[in-house]
Design goal:
CATH superfamily: Leucine-rich Repeat Variant
Number of strands: 0
CATH architecture: Alpha Horseshoe
Structural class: mainly alpha
Number of helices: 11
CATH class: Mainly Alpha
Largest sheet: none
Helix content: over 70%
Number of domains: 1
Order of helices and strands: HHHHHHHHHHH
Radius of gyration: 14 Å
């Protein structure tokens, strides 16, 4: 599939993911796996494709089941890589997805293990985008509030 087609498809899935029923239908049709694979393959792609891939994962990750599936399918590492993108719009969507993933203790641990903390701190300190800074700060706050990550780290 051409890059522009993938970008349009990811954008359509992102838009559809704002609805609860659509989120579940996308996941049931293999959308989580497909979007994680897209995120894994688009680090050198256009910022538009990167933004939409991360945005679609952000939208799907609102659902706890989808959030767990994204983590299990290997979606944390590519989202961290996208958070390091040169494009501000990509920062916002990647940080937003990481924030949603951080609600789950297993995903919070994956974010730490995959090197996400330095990427999120960097966004908090240097992103031009207020939204990216806010999303990164929220992800860090949820990861380190003591209720979720500390029991896993101390077990």
């Amino acid at each position: 599939m051409f890059s522009s087609n993938r970008q349009e498809a990811a954008g359509a899935l992102w838009n559809l993911s704002f609805d609860d029923r659509n989120r579940e239908a996308i996941a049931a049709a293999g959308g989580v796996e497909a979007l994680v694979a897209l995120a894994q393959s688009c680090s050198n792609a256009s910022p538009g494709l990167q933004e939409r891939a991360a945005g679609a994962l952000w939208g799907l990750s609102v659902s706890e089941a989808n959030s767990i599936a994204i983590g299990r399918e290997g979606g944390v590492a590519p989202l961290i890589a996208l958070a390091r993108s040169d494009a501000e719009d990509v920062h916002e969507t990647a940080a937003g997805a990481l924030w949603n993933l951080a609600f789950n203790p297993g995903n919070a641990l994956r974010i730490v293990e995959e090197g996400g903390v330095p990427a999120l701190v960097h966004l908090c300190a240097s992103s031009v985008s207020k939204m990216a800074r806010f999303m990164a700060a929220l992800a860090l706050a949820y990861m380190f509030d003591g209720r979720y990550l500390l029991p896993i780290l101390c077990s």
